[in-house]
Amino acid sequence: MEKVLWGMEGFWKEKNYEVKIVNMYSSCERGSRLRGWEELKLKRASSGIKSWCLLGDFNSIKKANDREGVGGIEYGRRE
Predict the structure, then answer these.
(1) What angle do CA 20, 24, 29 make, to 5 degrees?
(2) Whole-structure pTM value
(3) Does residue 22 contact residue 7 with C-beta atoms inside 8 Å?
(4) Which of 24, 25, 33, 68 is most open to solvent, judged by the fewest CB atoms within 10 Å of its CB?
(5) For a pLDDT cut of 90, what percent of the chain falls above it?
(6) What is the CA radius of gyration of the chain?
(7) Using CA atoms in the order 28, 31, 32, 38, what is the torsion angle rounded to 10 degrees?
């Protein structure tokens, strides 16, 4: 599955400034995930809004044994 990226722009009333909220789903496949981050960096660099809140499912793990498939079967693991 490819990355999914969507965002909303809004105005933070209490602080009186614009903010962009971005929800991102990152692919389990490393190359696709890295392309997603590059796309996000380009969008941020070209945006007039400087305050961003990023949330989502980044599919990042600290240790290879943290990645397990359904029923404990590992799949798609790349070091």
Answers:
(1) 150
(2) 0.63
(3) yes
(4) 68
(5) 5
(6) 16
(7) 120
